[in-house]
Design goal:
By secondary structure, the chain is mainly α. It has two domains: about 90 residues, no CATH class; about 100 residues, no CATH class. The chain is about 80% helix and about 0% strand. The protein starts with a helix and ends in a 20-residue tail after the last helix.
Length: about 220
């Protein structure tokens, strides 16, 4: 939206840079077009990638929960600690069926049980490093869990703010630049004709297919 005009004007900036009003408008137009482009790119950011990342992290997270929970449970059985045994008895099938929030809560619970029984778990190959690694996966999973929702919210926000951004571009063209360019209609008719041609492309919505090519402007400067 307006990129054709901006490209034409920026290509021929030596003709109009002496006009302060046009220069000010072009600075605003280039900035507004940059805003529109940024919002458009954020709207197109794939959410599927975030879901795939979440699945991969969940797989690793469940495996680590099971590995540590198994050792905690084994130690609990040895010590006849029925409370710890009941809290650490898990299967992968159970973990797979858990919601993301419940799985995260389970990971934190197993980390707490492992920390409380760290001395006895040394014989089972579980150290503070393992607990720290589990806590790291909990953080990763939490971030991945909320990422798709954040991506959707960001996209929705950009969708809502896109129309005002486009309106700004349209206003700069119609209410400012179109009028300011009349100064070049006589002093540099070919440059002005090229601008009009570029504006026709914009007002038609940038249709694909054959488009008029703005004529090369004369090199004469405005008087």
């Amino acid at each position: 939206m307006g990129a054709t005009v901006a490209a034409y004007m920026n290509k021929n900036l030596t003709i109009w840079t002496g006009n302060k009003a046009v220069t000010t408008t072009m600075t605003a137009l280039n900035g507004a077009l940059g805003t529109v482009d940024t919002k458009a790119q954020q709207q197109e950011t794939p959410i599927v990638g975030e879901e795939a990342k979440k699945v991969l992290i969940r797989h690793d997270y469940e495996d680590e929960i099971m590995r540590i929970a198994g050792q905690v449970c084994s130690l609990a059985v040895k010590n006849n600690d029925m409370a710890t045994d009941s809290q650490s008895e898990l299967t992968l099938a159970q973990l797979d069926k858990m919601s993301a929030d419940v799985l995260e809560s389970t990971g934190r619970r197993i980390s707490g049980l492992a920390t409380a029984n760290l001395a006895g778990l040394a014989d089972y190959g579980i150290t503070q490093t393992d607990v720290t690694a589990l806590d790291g996966l909990t953080t990763q999973f939490h971030d991945a869990k909320t990422a798709p929702r954040k991506a959707i919210a960001t996209r929705a926000g950009q969708t809502k703010t896109m129309p005002p951004a486009v309106k700004t571009v349209t206003s700069l063209l119609r209410n400012h630049l179109d009028k300011q360019m009349l100064m070049f209609k006589k002093s540099n008719p070919e440059f002005y004709a090229g601008y009009v041609s570029a504006r026709v492309i914009v007002d038609r919505g940038g249709h694909k297919g054959a488009q008029p090519t703005p004529p090369a402007p004369q090199t004469a400067t405005a008087k």
